[in-house]
Amino acid sequence: MNDRHTPPRYASAAEVARLAGVSRSAVSRAFTPGASISETTRKRVMQAAQALGYQVNDLARALLNQHSRLVGLVVTDPAAGFRAHLVAALTQALVRRGSVPVVINTGRTEAEMLAAHQALAGYRAEATVLLSGSPPASFLDLARRTGQKLVVVGRSEPGAAHVLTDNQAAAREAAQHFIGLGCLRLGLAGSASGTPNIVEREQAFLAHAHALGAEVWLARGADADYAGGQRAAQALLAQCPALQGVFCVNDLIACGLMDELRMQGLRVPQDVAVIGFDDIPEAAWASYRLTTFRQDPALLAAEIVRLLDTAHGTGPRAIRLRAPLILRESA
């Protein structure tokens, strides 16, 4: 019986060859799609492999072929909000593709991101998908020099394929929706994190709401999370106690803001209407019933995979997805 310090012992291709009574090269051909091998020999190899519990050594193949089936997902705080649902959908889509997803939970600094990318390059990863943060120039340069596919989500970067959400159209629609409800004293609950998605939503909402004749007060939490929404609600009420509507740059902020408004004795939507962004599952909970713009994790994951499949070909290099407005009771 092996103890916990004894490494696992995997059956080798040579052992499969001996048990099947074939050559070592026949075992390799049996596990290579399209390789020349008789059906009888292939079946013998597969039966022997099953008996021994043999699995192809993909890391060894990667060293020989200078690439692997690994796809790295570089993300900051992958368990939070919409990112958690996107990571789940993307890992499932990559497995269906035949890839091996590797999630690297990295920080926001240039050194941390570059270290993550270097690790993936060291394992000859086929591609890197950057799900959050801004890649430093050295990150992009390494991808270019190694020929590794690079897909960036939520921002445009030279030399990388990217998937974007139409934040500006959604933010303009939010402003128009509030005006249609008769709300002219509006709040914007943003985030000091300043990611490209958040900046686009903030700027477009401010510009369009002002153009439509509304007054707008801006407050930002330290991060784009529930606590940030609570702090934004407190700051907005201090600036304008008679707020009529608030646009939140994501649903986590909206949930914190709504709970804080209620703690202050205000009703949603009777006193203050609220619109969020993402349509995470919590948005539909009875406590919130949040009107929000939907980002579909499965659709986003499918488009990322499509970019991976065409990154060096003639397919699209940039995809922009619409976020439809989902109407619920909060607005």
UniProtKB/TrEMBL annotation:
Keywords: DNA-binding, Transcription, Transcription regulation
Classification via Pfam families: LacI (PF00356), Peripla_BP_3 (PF13377)
CDD domains: HTH_LacI (cd01392), PBP1_LacI-like (cd06278)
Keyword Isomerase: no
GO MF terms, alphabetically ordered: DNA-binding transcription factor activity; transcription cis-regulatory region binding
SUPFAM superfamilies, per database record: lambda repressor-like DNA-binding domains (SSF47413), Periplasmic binding protein-like I (SSF53822)
Domain HTH lacI-type stretches: 11-65
InterPro entries recorded: HTH_LacI, LacI/GalR-like_sensor, Lambda_DNA-bd_dom_sf, Peripla_BP_I
PANTHER family cross-referenced by the UniProt entry: LACI-RELATED TRANSCRIPTIONAL REPRESSOR, LACTOSE OPERON REPRESSOR
Name used for this protein in its record: Transcriptional regulator
UniProt source species: Candidatus Dactylopiibacterium carminicum
